[in-house]
TrEMBL record:
Keywords: Cobalamin, Cobalt, Disulfide bond, DNA synthesis, Nucleotide-binding, Oxidoreductase. Pfam families: Ribonuc_red_2_N (PF08471), Ribonuc_red_lgC (PF02867), TSCPD (PF12637). Catalyzes the reduction of ribonucleotides to deoxyribonucleotides. May function to provide a pool of deoxyribonucleotide precursors for DNA repair during oxygen limitation and/or for immediate growth after restoration of oxygen. This is Vitamin B12-dependent ribonucleotide reductase. Residues 153-688 form the Ribonucleotide reductase large subunit C-terminal domain. Residues 41-132 form the Ribonucleotide reductase class II vitamin B12-dependent N-terminal domain. SUPFAM superfamilies: PFL-like glycyl radical enzymes (SSF51998). It comes from the Bacteria. The keyword Oxidoreductase applies. GO terms for molecular function: cobalamin binding; cobalt ion binding; nucleotide binding; ribonucleoside-diphosphate reductase activity, thioredoxin disulfide as acceptor. InterPro entries: RdRp_reductase_class-2, RNR_2_N, RNR_lg_C, RNR_NrdJ/NrdZ, TSCPD_dom. Belongs to the ribonucleoside diphosphate reductase class-2 family.
């Protein structure tokens, strides 16, 4: 590690220090004294093996932090040996370790005007972290304030030249970066191709051959000393003579994986045999130019150039090469695409050098041998109770956080001297946000809608505008970055490009209009202050995956992503688990104008089905608000691309995001995504077609089932016929009068002596002979089927939610809304004749049960002490989502004020351990995601990586 903390300022102190404004805190009151603390036991097990993988008891957290957040922070970020006094055991210790280090460095380097400003900075930073308003990236929590090197950056870009010394040095540098818990990327295009000669007269090996050694190194070194695999990116220019070999590298390995899997080897991600396959530890990307993309459009030839001389040594058909790229991405999701000319058109330091590569998740793009530390804001924390966005507070928090991030460069250590020098000289930062998808849903905006994109664009513009405003202010106090002078005109040009893009945003409602006004003012100040002071930072913003830190902030969604699913898996303090309908759904329904009874019915339907299609009373034009990454109404590929395009002009870097396509997607569909990404001005793009990779769960189970079916002996076929059980001559009957949407009727239900339903008859008031005859025929058909043994719950499942007129309000307190008379009749029959567990699974409850749920958190009557404990836990969960607000604090998107936020909480099967597995139950098919190598839980997407809900492990960058 290279220590830069003692390096003198290149520019010297230019001002008198920052005046820090209070945002959340109260003078004379420490943030820790405003919350209620509790002790918890954190015990993690691998659910497959039953092995305890982590145990620390009596850890201290605020009572409003979820079990998941406290578990992930305890296991990932608490430092010190377990079982010793040195081990951290309170969130206070963790936050103090980090915040006090930042405050100390800020004082030493002249960032604060007075001691009082330093204290306010300390309290505001502490309050924001304590209340999950934002989080630094994982390396800060791993390293800051410890005896380890103070590595604060999650993202690194390396460089490699066409020499053996440089290639071997690349291996070494990557190893140190992985050891520190970070990821790295680089461009291999300087290395001669296998079609060029060495100075000795032999033929060069080419960059793909050297990728093997780096891949093996990445697979061996555990990132951060933990079980997370290393994260790395390998980029090759589209005009490199070995580009076809590079494009097809991972697709060929995927063929090998399939062959080995079919031969019985364990080829799942983390499987014992997957290590025999090469190139699996890196994301690959092709760096395409505008020249190449125009050649693709026009069907022209494209030249591949020698690395040393730049002369064309081979000509290829551009469309054919582009199709090979799309074919490989279709087969195995690699390589991704980076748009070189777009990236460098927004480059603030072109006089220093071009941007040639990115970090592993493609959001950080800057100079070679540089690094970037990240932080992300939780957008839902700025949504007030009246569903307005607190843009003023958002801007203040951005300025606070960007100040802390810049201070961290003053004391940070770096893995190499070259990276340390570039980072100190250019001070690249990456502020971003999480929970965009949840914010859009809570405010009634569809992810694929114009309004959703306008809101996202306005927020992103304000984010970067506020960051650069503070950067210019800091430049007036502690000086601009060292490389600013030679790049001043280019930097100011990029600032004007951001401002011009902000002027192009067309707002559609009062929410995005208000945010956009703040952004417009911020960009005007950026230009004015920048002309006067310059800028402290070469880069300011990116949109990162926010995997582990998203869980730390109890976010529903990561980065720029939409919500993963409408129904979530939730662990309970003290053991147990439940499924919960996304807390933002009731809030969104209330925002859209639905009444409490309608909201309750819709939430119950979602809890049962996992989607909103045909939900009772929900208007079809509102379906788009609830579209998710997975499920029956999954967001379209171009919906993802257009959202990225809306936000990209307001980011210094790029966006970590994968565009998901269904398994049925064609190569042409992927080509369209890549072309549109270029036309819409994206900097990078990765695609993933469902089930395109073998390394996923259940592959062995499927193979075993297939083998078992083939080996099964032929058995004698025995035909079974149902026997009709006729009703007795005298039977018990119950007649119910009802009204649905103003139409009146009567339902007569007759039972056997044991109470089992065996016959129904329906009569309607004011009906004609035709309708009466049809109802008689329908009643007889249902009755005969019941007597032949067709289960009532089958009919309930088929006929509830059937929609036709008359429909609407009923006079039955147990069934307040009905989609049709059939919907009402079979809900009534379910309530009268089905057991609680069966109908509860279908989301059908009586008025008394719904009232009980609002009071206790459970529909069922408590039968013993453990059930009462669970109900108390559910109640505490519903109360813990939002801490008590004070003054002008931004309100979290709490569990809903409509009273239905917990109506969806119910126990789940012990076989379900994550939201991804919950979605498998709703969809009836396996989710295409890897299994966590730490705890065995099904992971879910986060940007271009995967993250585990159980323990916070990620498959790539943090």
């Amino acid at each position: 590690m290279t220590d830069t903390s003692s390096a003198p300022s290149r520019t010297g102190r230019a001002g008198k220090g920052l005046k820090i404004e209070r945002i959340f805190t109260t003078p004379g009151v420490h943030p820790y004294d405003e919350v209620t603390w509790e002790r918890r036991d954190v015990v993690q097990t691998n659910w497959k093996s039953g092995e305890t993988i982590f145990e620390q008891r009596g850890v201290e957290f605020p009572d409003f932090w979820s079990l998941n957040a406290s578990t992930i922070v305890t296991t990932k970020y608490f430092r010190g040996a377990l079982g010793t006094p040195a081990r951290e055991q309170s969130l206070k210790q963790l936050i103090d370790r980090v915040v006090l280090t930042y405050v100390k460095a800020g004082k030493e380097h002249g960032y604060f005007a007075t001691e009082q400003d330093a204290e306010i900075f300390e309290h505001e930073l502490t309050w924001a972290l304590l209340h999950q308003v934002f989080s630094f990236n994982s390396p800060v929590w791993f390293n800051v304030g410890t005896k380890s090197p103070q590595q604060v950056s999650a993202c690194f870009i390396l460089s490699v030249d066409d020499s053996m010394d440089s290639i071997l040095n690349w291996y070494k540098e990557e190893g140190f970066i992985f050891k520190g818990g970070s990821g790295a990327g680089l461009n291999l295009s300087r290395i001669r191709s296998s079609k060029e000669l060495l100075s000795s007269g032999g033929t060069a090996s080419g960059p793909v051959s050297f990728m093997r050694g780096a891949d093996a190194s990445a697979g061996t070194i555990k990132s951060g000393g933990a079980t997370r695999r290393a994260a790395k990116m390998v980029v090759l220019d589209v005009d490199h003579p070995d580009i076809e070999e590079f494009i097809e590298t991972k697709a060929r390995e995927e063929d090998k994986i399939r062959a080995l899997r079919d031969a019985g080897f364990d080829m799942d991600l983390g499987g014992k045999d997957i290590t025999s396959v090469q190139y699996q530890n890196a994301n690959n990307s092709v760096r395409v130019s505008d020249e190449f993309m125009r050649a693709v459009e026009e069907g022209k030839e494209f030249g591949l150039r020698a690395r040393g001389t730049g002369e064309v040594i081979e000509t290829v058909d551009a469309r054919e090469l582009f199709n090979k790229l799309n074919q490989a991405a279709w087969e195995c999701a690699d390589p991704g695409v980076q748009y070189d000319d777009t990236i460098n058109a927004w480059h603030t330091n072109p006089e220093t050098g071009r941007i040639t590569a990115s970090n592993p998740c493609s959001e950080y793009m800057s100079l070679d041998n540089s690094s970037c530390n990240l932080a992300s804001l939780n957008l839902l924390k700025f949504l007030r109770e009246d569903d307005t966005f607190d843009a003023a507070t958002f801007q203040k928090v951005v300025e606070l956080v960007i100040t802390a991030m810049d201070i961290s460069i003053c004391f940070a250590d770096f893995p190499t001297e070259a990276i340390g020098k570039t980072t100190v000289d250019y001070r690249q930062l990456g502020i971003g946000y999480a929970n965009l998808g949840a914010l859009l849903m809570a405010t009634g905006h569809g992810y694929e809608s114009e309004g959703g994109r306008s809101l996202a664009a306005s927020i992103t513009s304000l984010l970067t505008g506020a960051a650069y405003k503070r950067s210019a202010e800091l430049a007036g106090i502690v000086g601009p970055y060292a490389g600013y002078a030679r790049n001043a005109e280019a930097h100011k040009r990029v600032m004007r490009k951001h401002q011009a893009a902000n002027d192009q945003v067309r707002t559609l409602d009062s929410m995005d209009g208000d945010i956009h006004r703040y952004a417009t003012k911020a960009w005007a100040q950026v230009i004015e202050l920048g002309e006067k002071n310059g800028y402290r930072n070469a880069q300011a913003s990116v949109l990162a995956p926010t995997g582990t830190i998203g869980f730390m902030m109890d976010c529903d969604t990561t980065g720029i992503e939409p919500d993963f699913s409408l129904v979530k898996f939730k662990k309970l303090v003290g053991g147990g688990s439940m499924q919960i309908v996304n807390n933002t759904i009731p809030r969104a329904l209330k925002k859209l104008g639905y009444l409490e009874e309608q909201i309750e019915a819709i939430v119950e339907y979602i809890a049962e089905h996992g989607h909103v299609v045909d939900a009772p009373g929900l208007k079809q034009e509102h379906y788009e608000v609830f579209d998710c990454a997975m499920g029956k109404r999954a967001i379209t590929p171009m919906g993802h691309v257009r959202m990225m395009a809306a936000c990209q002009p307001f980011l210094s870097g790029a966006i970590s995001k994968t565009v998901n396509l269904p398994e049925s997607a064609t190569i042409e569909d992927i080509a369209e995504v890549h072309l549109e990404g270029w036309k819409l001005g994206l900097k990078a793009l990765a695609v993933y077609r469902d089930n395109c990779k073998v390394g996923q769960p259940l592959s062995d189970a499927k193979a075993e089932k297939k083998d078992a079916a083939q080996d099964a002996p032929v058995e004698k076929v025995v035909e079974y016929r149902p026997i009709r059980k006729r009703m007795p001559k005298r039977r018990n009957s119950q007649t119910t009068s009802f009204a649905v949407g103003g139409a009146e009727g009567y339902l007569t239900a007759s039972s056997y002596d044991d109470g089992e339903l065996g016959e129904i008859f329906l009569k309607f008031g004011k009906q004609g002979s035709t309708l009466a005859g049809m109802m008689d025929a329908f009643s007889i058909a249902i009755s005969v089927a019941l007597q032949y043994g067709v289960p009532l719950d089958t009919y309930v499942e088929k006929f509830t939610n059937m929609r036709f007129e008359p429909a609407g309000m009923t006079d039955d307190p147990d069934v307040r809304m009905a989609q049709s008379i059939m919907d009402y009749v079979f809900r009534r029959l379910a309530l009268d004749h089905l057991d609680f567990e069966t109908r509860s699974f279908m989301g059908i409850h009586s008025a008394d049960e719904r009232a009980r749920q609002l009071e206790t958190g459970s529909y069922a009557e408590p039968t013993n002490e453990s059930d009462e404990d669970l109900e108390g836990e559910l109640e505490s969960f519903s109360q813990s989502a939002a801490p008590a607000a004070k003054k002008s604090q931004p309100e979290p998107a709490a569990e809903d004020q409509s009273g239905s936020g917990a109506a969806d909480a119910r126990k789940v099967s012990p076989e379900i351990h994550s939201s991804a597995e919950l979605m498998e139950r709703f969809q009836g098919k396996a989710a295409d995601a890897p299994i966590c190598m730490t705890c065995g839980t099904k992971m879910r997407p986060a940007g271009s990586c995967y993250v585990c809900e159980g323990c916070g492990s990620t498959s790539g960058c943090s």
